[in-house]
Amino acid sequence: MRIPAHSVCTAIRDDIVAGVYERGGRLTEELLARRYGVSRVPVREALRTLEAEGFVVTRRHAGACVAEPTEQEAADLLEMRTLLEPLGAARAAQRRTEAHLKVLRGLVRLGQERARRGNSEDLRSLGGWFHETLAQASGSPALASMLTQLRHKIAWMYSVEAPVNPVESWTEHGAIVDAVARGDGERARGVTALHAERAMSAHRLRFGSGGDRAERVRNSQHPVNMPSLRH
């Protein structure tokens, strides 16, 4: 049975994010096909998709290689997320379904419970599921797809420190869901923007000399008036 190219694409992308393939390293169709147990056709299609996403570049005389993003490109991704996640939350406030709310509330309950116990590994996964569900609740497949790509790239380029106060972080998640449930788009946008801004300082580049790049970018941005979470 022919394995779909999107499955091969997911496998290669996951390995790039995990650091299995070094930045700048060659990605030959033959070796990839052997590794994933497929023919070269789905590998070729997957590499084209990954090139469009920015994970792969094609170089003369070398073929497909893992991309080598600059510090500025990495910083731009964090800034893009701080703009797009609030937009997604505002749209979710208008377009979410009861099914979305049920999942979001369940994730917040689990997150708050794990935060009190200090289980950081569970919290990382739960946070990813929360933001993925929130993006889906926006009712915009294009926006949800863009946010998913951003999360993959940010996970590839940055290591993320656990929140100093995970309970407070999950209180912010709860405030986002409350605003979405009430249909308050502006409130949802504001608390999500605040949450995204605070999360930036926990990101550390995996490459280059700018380990505090995320902090420098955050401090260089124009101040934004954010609503209090206790509103």
TrEMBL record:
Q: Name the species this protein comes from.
A: Streptomyces caeruleatus
For this entry, the protein name equals GntR family transcriptional regulator
Q: Which GO terms describe its molecular function?
A: DNA binding; DNA-binding transcription factor activity
SUPFAM superfamilies recorded for this chain? GntR ligand-binding domain-like, Winged helix' DNA-binding domain
Query: Pfam family of this protein, just one?
Result: GntR
Domain HTH gntR-type as annotated: residue spans:
2-69
Q: Which UniProt keywords apply?
A: DNA-binding, Transcription, Transcription regulation
Can the keyword Transcription regulation be found in this entry's annotation? Answer: yes
Extract the SMART domains matched here.
FCD, HTH_GNTR
Q: Where is this region: Disordered?
A: 208-231
- Residues spanning the signal sequence: none
